[in-house]
Structure formats: structure tokens, C-alpha cells
Amino acid sequence: MGDFPTFEDVFERGLEVFAIILILWIVRSSLNALKDYLKTLPRFKDKPIDSYIQVFMIFSWLGGIMSAIAILTGIEFIKFVTGLGAISAVIILVFKDTIMGFVASIQVSINDMVRIGDWITFEKYGADGDVIEINLATVKVQNFDKTITTIPTYALISDSFKNWRGMTNSEGRRIKRALYIKQTGVKYLTDADVEKLKGIHLITSYLEGRQADIKTYNNANNVDKNLLLNGRNLSNLGVFRKYIDTYLKQHSAVNKDMMIMARQLAPTTQGIPLEIYAFSSDKRWENYEYIMSDIFDHLIAALPYFDLEIFELPSHGSFKA
């Protein structure tokens, strides 16, 4: 080899570069094996392991490439790295997305904003489903129609999105929907109306108690009941609201340990909103929709018994003679 110094030098440099490639391959294989192992551990199952492995791989490849270039050019590694400072702006520009993704991954992990398996809704990117992967540059979400939406990792800290983990970890899933009641149907109840409504078992005891209290108050204050407006009275809307509250509290699919409320909101041009606020015991989407539909089917069908109507815009049939 001494007779061919040029060939010897090239051969040695080639071996050194090959050694670097071999080391990078070993590091890559080791990191992938570590990633697969960590994903089998329960405590790391929902963590963005891919992001951290990719960061280590990027630094490994950068170190390997710079070492190989330094060897091939004959420049000392320290001097070569120092020289890179002059083109640092270009390097930052090239790796801008990677740097932003790396920072975002750290913030997402530290602040526990998103985990693998979380259900998130990100309207800006049309994502509504479960997070299946978090890596350095992107977050993959499998939507409920089985399509995949890819979101930039840094968007999780720069934009607003909804994470449903709180609901999943709670004891129930919220039902929050309103019935819009026609205002013209709201009225005071006469004694005959009250007696008729006492036939509804859920509110019989309530009506008896309220009727006795109202009669006692009106008699004590010498209220002239020739005009129904005078004194204290029951209204059909108020009694229906009490019926809703009682119905929800005895419904087998409603969580009794969480808030149950039937409330009246401010009147609108579409009528008076009567909002139901409760939590279903079953959080599974299909069962949740069934429970909510069952509740509102019943309440809509019950409205005529209280001489109330749902507001709806007139259709063509409404104008027929």
C-alpha cells in the first residue's frame, strides 16, 4: 500500500465513511427497536415517542453527514462545525418545519395537550376522530368515516382545537339541547287544567303540593281570583318544565350524580327555548345518540298534553285553505 499513497488515502477515507454509515445504521436500528419497545409499555402508549426518536435520528444523521464531509474534505471536524456558523441562517430556514415541530412536540407532551388515542375535533383541518400517531412534523387523526387527516404538529399550539378526553374520563356525556316552544301557547292553568294534569303520574304529587301552597297564599292575601292573573298561579310552561326535570331524574340512562336541569332561556324569534341539560351514563356515541333521541321523542310527544306546541317555520302546507 505504501507504493500507492493516493490510493491508500482514498481507501482509508472510504473505510471511515463506511464505518460512519454502519454506525448510523446501528443507531437507527437501535432507536427503532427502542421505539417499538416503549410503545408496548402502558405508561408510554399515549406519548409521542415517534417525535423524540425522530429528533435523535436527525441529530445522528447530521453528526454523521458532517463527519463524513469533514473526512472527505480533510478538514478537522471542529473547524468544519465552526464553519457552519456562517450558513446557520440557511440551515435554520431549511429545517424550519422540523424545528417548529420539535418545539411543538415538547410543548404538547409537557402540557399534556394531546395523547395517542384522544378524540379531537379540529375544524380548521376538517379533523374529527382519534389521534393515531404523533411525530415530529405531523399528527395523524383517523376520522370516524375512517379517513385520515394529517395536521402539522405546531398547529396544536398555534390554533384552537377541541379535545374530548375530559368527557371520556368523566362519568357521563353531556346532553345539551333545547325545545323551542311557541310563545302564544303559554298560559296560566285553571283549577280544571290542574286537575286534568294530575293524571300525569310524574307530577301528581308536585301539583297537589303546589296547588295547596298557592291556594293558602291567595286566601291569606284575599286575592280576587275572578281574574286569573291575580295572585299566584301555575303556568303550563312551568309545569312542563317540572315534568321534564322529574322525567330526567327517573330516566335509567341519565347519570343521577351529575347535573340535571331543565331551564328556560331568553325568548327568541323562534320561540322560547326550553333547554335540557343532563349527562348520559353511557358515553359510547351510538348509545348516547339513542338515549338523547329517546328523551326528546318522549318530550315532543308529551307537549300537547300541556297545551304547548313546538315552533317551526311555516311550510307550503301551512298556507293551504
Give a quick rundown of the structure.
The chain has helices at 5-40, 49-73, 77-83, 88-94, 96-110, 155-158, 165-169, 191-197, 204-220, 236-250, 285-302, and strands at residues 119-122, 127-134, 138-143, 148-152, 162-163, 173-181, 261-264, 272-280.
Observed structural traits:
321 residues, alpha+beta, SH3 type barrels, 8 strands, 49% helix, LSM_dom_sf, membrane, MscS_beta-dom_sf, YbdG, stress response
Detailed description of the structure:
The chain crosses the membrane at residues 14-31, 52-71, 77-95. It is found in: Cell inner membrane. It is a multi-pass membrane protein. Its main location: membrane. Keywords: Cell inner membrane, Cell membrane, Membrane, Stress response, Transmembrane, Transmembrane helix. With 321 residues, the protein is α+β, with helices and mostly antiparallel strands. The chain folds into 3 domains: 5-94; 119-163, SH3 type barrels (Roll), CATH 2.30.30; 173-306, no CATH class. Helices cover 49% and strands 15% of the residues. The chain is built from 11 helices and 8 strands. It has helices at 5-40, 49-73, 77-83, 88-94, 96-110, 155-158, 165-169, 191-197, 204-220, 236-250, 285-302; strands spanning 119-122, 127-134, 138-143, 148-152, 162-163, 173-181, 261-264, 272-280. The strands form 2 sheets. Strands 4-3-2-1-5 form a 5-stranded antiparallel beta sheet. Strand 3 and strand 4 (148-152) form a beta hairpin. Helix 1 (5-40) packs antiparallel against helix 2 (49-73). The longest helix is centred in the first third of the chain and has 36 residues, at 5-40. The model has no long low-confidence stretch (mean pLDDT 84).
